[in-house]
Amino acid sequence: MKMFRKHVGSISRISTQLQRGPPTVGSIAGLSTEAEAAPKQERVDEKITEFRTAITNPGGHSPLQIAKFYTIPAEEKKRIFGGGGLPKQYELQIKTFTEACLMVRSPALELLQYIKQADLSKPVVRYVLYGENGVGKSLTMAHVLHYGALHDFLLVHVPWAPNWMKRPKETANATGQEGFIDLPFDAAAWLVHFKTQNAQLLQKLQLKTSKDYVWSKRESTPTGSLLTELVEHGIARIKYASETIAAVISELKQLSTAGQCKVMVAIDGFNAFFHPETRIFSDNKQRVTPDRITLTQPFLNITNYDWTNGVCILSVDKIAMTEGYMESYMPRYLLGKDGFEHLDPFVPVHVDNYTDKEFTNYISYYVDRFWITKTAPDLEDQLKFMSNKNPYTLMQLVRGL
Amino acid sequence: MLKRALIYGKFRTNGIYGSFENGTRWSRLMSMYPPHYAEPIFKKDSQNMEKYELAKLSHVPIKAALNSSSDTIFNAELKQKMLAYIVKCGNSRLARELLTKTFEQIKRAQIERKHLVKQDNGHAICIDAEKLLIQAIENSRPLLQLSSIKRGGVKYQVPVPLTSKKSYFYAMKWILDAAKEKDRKISLSSKLAWEILDAAHGQGRVIKKKNDLHRLCENNRAYAHYRWS
Amino acid sequence: MALRVLGLNLIKNNINLLQNACRINATSTTQAPYCNQVTVHAAPAAVQKQKVSKAMKAYLERARENDEFMKTQDLDFQIGKRHLANMMGADPETFTQQDIDDAISYLFPSGLFDKRARPAMKSPDEVFPARKAAEFDETGRPFHSMFYTGKPNFFQLLHDIVEETNKLYDLEERMLRRGNKPDENQKIEMAGFQMLPKDQLEVKLVETIADIEYSNFVSSMERLIASPFSYKSKNFIERYLKPLIDQSKQLEVPKPKIDEQGRQYITTYECLRKTARADVTVRMPGTGKININGKDISYFDVEQCREQLLFPLQFSGLLGKVDVEANVAGGGSSGQSGAIRWGIAMSLRSFVDQEMIESMRLAGLLTRDYRRRERKKFGQEGARRKYTWKKR
To answer: What are the protein's UniProt keywords (chain A) (predicted)?
Structure first.
């Protein structure tokens, strides 16, 4: 009963969230049904713990589950995040705690609500996650990605765009375009990641190309071949990987506009594509701007609003910038003029530090998983003070406890 | 003595900020507390002393608590001592980071073990990194050391008892040295974590070193009286 | 004749006399109780007719001169004081020493560092050192029975201590026989006192004492105090005890003010630590918010600095109950956080009871950390580090 009171307490927050989002009749009706369904859910939750929820499908998450943890099943986690997507420290944590648990937080729920209610026949809406360092943007994206994977979205997921700008495995001069730089290994790695994420769906949908792609005198991919073949071609022939990506992306745009599939684009650290410089050097030892890299083109292409039946989730981050100290975490500042014009109009989604309830639950989770071994009466207050309820800082602080 | 220890007087400022630069021209600035100042007792538990001792202290000025000491969950006595020995060139930030990472590694290793041994007795495995550190240090503390004493022209290795301060110092020093000795490519935090875990369970190089020392002392028992003769 | 009577010690005593000439000091008997008036006429008329040696004469002459000198000095001082009062436009009758000091520092401003080197006008008692009065009369006969020890006052004191101790022993024996026990409530509290330090004892006795002698004095006093009935000799003992200041009550705890929203607040200014300067405001009915130069606690990105801010709040138990606002400038992160920590601790005193204040003081939160960087010395590499010693 105590928990139910807590649920009822959070309904006031639900109303403010509803005011923010596009109001529809369905959601308000949903609220009343959720309130009725709460007692059933409550019993299920009680069986586990106060801070956990048994609903592993993000589609079933509602504001009642805010500040609770849900587990991502191991195979799904491997499939979706095999090529990245969860921060390194988080991966370590998953390994230590032997479970992949994500907390349900309000920015993620807001995004999910927008996606659920979106009219996919309209041009693609771009959602931009922004916030201070270490506040949970990547994990919010991971949550939404999980939802997309379970709801038949084709995932176009770039786990961390700045990796391509800062630490490319290898650079090569582009064959197709003059003065451009290729990142063969990174492109191939991305194709592998794409393939793993969408293997089942691609198999099911049997998407076909609509154009001829000629790679060289002897190699070409004819019209009507499966998309999977195109992808595999890119993986096998690393030299043409970047071009394959461009091809795949344009195909996806056409296919989704035609209505054959839904596409979810998720790019973390999108502002890396608009930073004035990268750490890649051209042949004449000069720094290259991101628009001279072949990999940026397709992803800029797909974040345009000239296609339908899809959803675009991007995040801008201070640490995505190659060099220098960024003063502000606001999208306009981080994207710069070009980036802002490219993305305009977009829906900004602010990700903030933990609320009190989320914080308490996170501490309980850590204690439950044996990560916090100290017991002090005001442990929570001290940690709250020290970390300022910032998720990353909390994680750092708790390492040594 | 050039290290003049003045009792601090009123500090003169022309304004609240910014005029201190004139003050630094005065050469007689205090860098040490006067000798009658007492050490602070910054842990609330340690302040539960007998009444008469507290009464003694009520008339004695107390030094300011150091920046590294506090009564929070982040501070522990032996941990601070360990930090002091890890610090190089005054870089205490790095030392703290290293020790935190060490504790992280210890915890991960112990939790892994705990999950493996879940069926038998999950309670026996201690995950508290601080407790393990204390245990490791206690286990590797030597009680005696050999000191070379010259009697009749011959230098003998005489077993001599150690003060507790010194024995704690040796324990921590040996653990750190053992951790620094290994492969340079592995970070200090990982090496230190393994050393601490080993020592806490009574195995490893540090325990071996301590046992060797004790064995030598035992062998040289015959010369023990040379301490006084 | 006098020479033969006194023997070889006379020469030594003459030297003593030169040092300890007498003077009239009718005004300040409390300062040096061992100074008495010159009793030139104290000797009976019969003795007066005896021949007085030259040395004796010279001594008495010198003593008289000194007395007159002091008188004139005193007179000069009083006149000067009245002149000064007139100059400053104040009432000469109620012109205190403090007023004199202020007037002199106004009329003769000095930039000299040592305060003792600056112009000052003090009473001749303070300027000229206290000296002993006549130790023997014109016949050469010393007044004090222990004159020939060379330090009569000191040894008289030791004698007194022993006498008191013996008295207390007898008392104890009598009480034991009667079956009475000493009264526990009246026991002398040594906690707030320390034995009179050596230099102050020297001033009191008007004699120089060796270290061994001082330690003898201390041990005899301690034995006296340790006796169960020592409270009977309380008056005697208290003369030689110096009260220590009670540290926690030394600084007055300010009262909180009330701001526009009706919250209590305290501001501590001039919070110093190394080169950092801060002023800290603590507001009482609060939610644990921190505001440093407009930013919240993320102003400090180092964990240790945040811990320092947490320390006084957590120690006093007011962690989520107060709001802290601080303006800080100068220094580095460690210095700034130390300054703010002190500021928070000092401000929290007003919201916390006396026991907790004492507790904070023992924890070292309320002491101003006035340590500054030690300068580098020539011939050394740093403040303490010496250059590597090379044998050749």
So the answer is: Mitochondrion, Ribonucleoprotein, Ribosomal protein, Transit peptide
